[in-house]
Specification:
Blueprint (H helix, E strand, L loop, with lengths): L7 E2 L5 E3 L2 H22 L11 H17 L15 E2 L14 E2 L3 H17 L3 H16 L9 H6 L13 H19 L3 H16 L16 H12 L2 H13 L6 H12 L28 H18 L2 H17 L31 H17 L3 H15 L20 H6 L19 H9 L3 H4 E4 L2 E4 L5 E7 L2 E8 L7 E7 L4 E8 L8 E3 L5 E3 L2 E8 L4 E5 L4 E4 L13 E4 L2 E2 L2
Helix pairs in contact: 1-3, 1-16, 2-3, 2-4, 3-4, 3-6, 3-16, 6-7, 6-8, 8-9, 8-11, 9-11, 11-12, 11-13, 13-14
The structure holds beta-L-arabinofuranose and zinc ion.
Length: 587
């Protein structure tokens, strides 16, 4: 593997999005979604399910302050399990001293601050930054002196820490905290949250590992894997890359950590040992031996994204091959025409091959987002049209449809066929909401949409030293620094409605480099017009040489309406067609 050929996402500071479609979306996130979500995190949206997120951080901060005032080392109370989703008996009168909400509620903040960071890069906003700084103060005040930072345990008792990796999401909270902290640091240069994230990551790096006395566990809900790679990229501290690789390498090894953990917990709690659904956690076998996408769909694609990151950073061919097999399993057998994945509500999971029901489909918004994460990482290692096609499909048809046009209501599940009366009458459809919801108690999806939309340019453009790749046709301007100088691309695009795209180049003096453009799979006869020879490889058009000011490249991607039939093995789709045009699946 030639690691230098791999690409990385473009620095968001180098992009300005101005096209009618994506500018509207990013502005919607900035003007509506981010303020709305801040209200949601503070439980200020009438009629919406409560988040309790900032309530929990404030309470954890008070606990830390009290322990500091007492001048004593923080002495944790005995851990009390208060349920996966702890709600007050009387919602109008919550107890100020109790943790509420899902045990991973901290991530509501982390995703929000991540979106805030991306948005500030595009659009500096003093008031928003001040709100974010205050929120960061609240969050950092909750961290223990040792660096641990998950309010569920800080409030409910620290002696439960890392005792239930399978279900209790502490490492998921770490992962999101890192992602949020990196984004905010890159936007503002302020490192308070980044330092807190590093301290938590250091705490975790001390606890987990192969040395005597260290824990050989790994996340029950993946994300730390890819987040730690990001932390490594920012801090250059190899410890974080090693920790990510450790989590990936340990998953599914024998003796199985989750099975052992269940045995220990059953003994401690004086109860029978329960069976562990290892498939749900992608822990049936070591990841390099896996070839079918199984289990909880969001967890799966977050894991595969982390695997792709580690494969790229370390040149690990066997990990890359596993990613390629898992990708094929998804795309060949488990992908909806909308880019949705995770066909069954049971376990929010992938079903068996070709089981893609339309009405009971789960197709969680977060799973489509995770698929876009995975696709982008595969593109970074190997620019092949299919990765870009699937990323685009998921983004336009399941990610964006998860949010209303006013940015104030959201879908969590995205079935392909909905009969409202059936949804109200049939408990097999209880997960389907017939209208978008103001918020969710388990609010994983809305802030996930905000963070991916506000960083969309990082999915559209990746680069290495001498190449800039365009995977998605956002309109705007992109600055790329090549060894011989800086080239600015002005892209005029009306995607996803029109496939005529003009790229005009600006440079003070000739700049040498390669530009690559994805030729979308949905276009039967793409055309590229330029003054340079065009080389096509793996569905990308490459143009190389010296670029001069004013030079243009015109891309024509005609968009005939297409009727698409599913593979015959998808029996639910017998005698049906999907109507698509360009990247959009209409019905
Ligand atoms: O468990 C955290 C998040 O909540 C998952 O990613 C979603 O699927 C939802 O279950
Ligand atoms: Zn979700």
């Amino acid at each position: 593997m030639d690691l230098t050929r791999f690409t990385h996402p473009i620095d968001l500071h180098a992009v300005s999005i101005t096209d009618p479609f994506w500018q509207r979306e990013t502005e919607l996130v900035r003007r509506e979604v981010i303020p709305y979500q801040w209200d949601a995190l503070n439980d200020r949206i009438p009629g919406a399910e409560k988040s309790w997120c900032m309530h929990n951080f404030r309470l954890a901060g008070r606990i830390m302050a009290q322990s500091r005032q007492q001048g004593a080392q923080y002495t944790p109370q005995a851990y009390t399990y208060r349920g996966y989703n702890a709600l007050p008996d009387d919602p109008a009168h919550p107890d100020e001293d109790k943790f509420y909400g899902f045990l991973f509620q901290d991530t509501d903040f982390s995703k929000w601050i991540e979106a805030v960071g991306y948005s500030l890069i595009q659009h500096p906003d003093e008031a928003l930054e001040a709100t974010a700084d205050e929120a960061i103060d609240v969050v950092c005040a909750a961290q223990t002196p040792e660096g641990y930072l998950d309010t569920y345990y800080i409030i409910n008792g620290m002696d439960g820490v890392f005792q239930n990796l399978r279900d209790h999401h502490e490492l998921y909270c770490l992962g999101h905290l890192i992602e949020g902290a990196v984004s905010y640091y890159q936007a503002t240069g302020k490192d308070k949250l980044l330092r807190a994230a590093c301290r938590f990551a250091d705490y975790v790096a001390d606890f987990f590992g192969t040395a005597d006395g260290q824990c050989k566990g790994y996340p029950g809900h993946e994300i730390a894997e890819m987040a730690l790679v990001r932390l490594y990229e920012v801090t250059k501290d190899e410890k974080y890359l090693r920790l990510s690789r450790f989590f990936i390498d340990e998953r599914g090894q024998e003796p199985n950590y989750f099975v052992e953990e269940e045995r220990r917990n059953a003994e401690r709690e004086h109860r029978p040992v329960r069976s562990v659904n290892l498939a749900y956690h992608q822990a049936v076998k070591p990841v390099r031996e896996q070839d079918e996408a199984i289990g909880h769909a969001v967890r799966a694609v977050y894991l595969y994204s982390g695997m792709a990151d580690v494969a790229r950073m370390t040149g690990d061919d066997s990990l890359k091959s596993a990613c390629e097999r898992l990708w094929r399993s998804i795309v060949q057998e488990k992908l909806y025409i909308t880019g949705g994945i995770g066909a069954t509500q049971i376990g929010e999971a992938f079903s068996y091959a070709y089981d893609l029901p339309n009405d009971t489909a789960y197709s969680e918004t977060c799973a489509a987002i995770g698929l876009a994460f995975f696709a982008r990482r595969m593109l970074q290692m190997s620019p092949q049209r299919e990765y870009g096609d699937v990323m685009e499909l998921a983004l336009y048809n399941t990610v964006l449809s998860g949010m209303a046009l006013d940015g104030k209501s959201f879908f969590y599940v995205n079935p392909l066929s909905v009969v409202p009366s059936a949804c109200h009458a049939d408990s097999r459809l209880q997960h389907v909401k017939t209208v978008r919801q103001k918020w969710f108690g388990c609010a994983c999806c809305p802030p996930n949409i905000a963070r991916i939309v506000s960083s969309i340019a990082a999915y559209a453009f990746t680069e290495n030293e001498d190449t800039l790749l365009t995977h998605l046709y956002l309109g705007g301007s992109i600055r790329k620094t090549f060894p011989t100088g800086t080239l600015t691309l002005s892209i005029a695009s009306d995607m996803p409605w029109d496939g005529h795209i003009t790229v005009t180049l600006h440079a003070d003096s000739p700049v040498s480099g390669t530009l690559g453009f994805r030729l979308p799979g949905w276009c039967p006869n793409p055309n590229v017009t330029a003054d340079k020879p065009v080389r096509v490889a793996d569905g990308y058009a490459y143009l190389s040489g010296d670029w001069h000011d004013g030079e243009t490249i015109v891309l024509d991607f005609p968009m005939p309406v297409r009727l698409i039939r599913a593979n015959n093995r998808v029996h639910e789709d017998m005698r049906q067609v999907a109507v698509t045009r360009g990247p959009i699946t209409f019905c």
